Amino acid sequence: MSQSWTENTESDSTMVLSALGSKYSAEILCAAGTPKSAQALSEDIEIPIATCYRRIEELVDAGLLTCEGRQLSEEGRRTNIYRRTLDEIEIDFSDGEPEFSRKRRTEAKNRLEDQLKD
Predict the structure, then answer these.
(1) What Rg value do the Cα atoms of the chain yield, rounded?
(2) Which of 15, 84, 91, 102 sees the fewest Cβ atoms within 10 Å?
């Protein structure tokens, strides 16, 4: 189900475009189809952990990634777990300001993917 980002403001547009334009952001979003920690994302796409945390913060601020909760790491520390909030995004530049269309992830899809992962 695709929907337009009608509540889109200029600052929202700028934030989304900035987050998507950062190196590794697309890779993080692709890898975050299932819940993952920053450490797991960093290892999966082979980027420094500090860079991964910066990109995660940008993506969360732009509404493209969400923190789904916390879990214990292998070292016994509590870590945030992230998952992308959408499956598709389309940006139309034909008018004066970018217009976004997105396909949000549903809870049903998240649950199904979680079951298939186990």
Answers:
(1) 15
(2) 91
